Amino acid sequence: MGALRTDFHPTMRKPIIAANWKMHKTPPETEDFLRDFLVLAQSGESVDIVIAPPFISLSAALAMITNRDHVRVSAQNMHFEPSGAYTGEISPLMLRTMHVSYVILGHSERRSIFGETDALINKKVLAAHHYHLKPILCVGETLEERDAGKLEEVLTTQLTGSLASVTADQMVGTVIAYEPVWAIGTGRTATAAQAQEAHALVRRIITGLYDPETARRVRIQYGGSVKPGNMGELMAQPDVDGALVGGASLESGSFWEIVRAAAEANTVKLSAPILPAGN
Ligand code: PEP
Questions:
Q1: Closest C-alpha among 138, 206, 222 to residue 172
Q2: Catalytic site residue 107?
Q3: pLDDT tens string 245-265
Q4: Which residues pair with 178 in a beta bridge?
Q5: Is the pLDDT of residue 2 over 90?
Q6: CA distance linking residue 166 with residue 129, whole number of Å
Q7: Is residue 52 lining ligand 1, measured as CB closer than 6 Å?
Q8: Is residue 179 annotated as part of the catalytic site, yes or no?
């Protein structure tokens, strides 16, 4: 086995694979999934696994995964206030009281369908940290923005706005999900090279907002039509630290194959030899 690479520090970034179930799975369906999945996932400790069911199924998921540190539960959204007259909303305090660990914030469906802005998402990111929930902050460009050469501009605007007043310590506890909008639910995955380019850009932007050490420690997931067949190649990229998975996370076998592919690719990545400068 070669010496560990020093041009990045993958050992500091444990892979994180999250299942975003969106508006799918009732409590009994959640139990069915986890009954199968938890048998498969008994040996998945090298990867953090996160399950994000709809609010109504959080309790069922939490009851099934007690005492399994490598499998955690996430909400898919929340309000930023702890309580109040916000009909239909769920608060960070409520999620924390239930022992939810993560919350997905700023998903492109929240941005495009429900009109969430970076300013609103920022309030939610700050509230999540205040209540000790780990945010999974989603960013990503539309196809029009990519074709117009605006990738860097869009990511810079989204990250700067959503992370305002977030401290460096909180930043390290924030997971970024880079999700090109054109790849979500379309079957069209970004190539590994496109994903690496965007992830490196996200890390550069975080370096500018914080410092190189903070940026090196932040985990950046790729999201957009991830499947068992493409996870390995994506995960092999130096700045890809996992995935946020929609459609392919709804079936326990396929989600487990994605977790396994990520774990295997990460093992190879960790043993990669140090490359001479310039290679
Ligand atoms: C998502 O909803 O975050 C997502 C990436 O969906 P899919 O995997 O289905 O493209």
A1: 206
A2: yes
A3: 999 999 999 999 999 999 999
A4: 139, 222
A5: no
A6: 9
A7: no
A8: yes
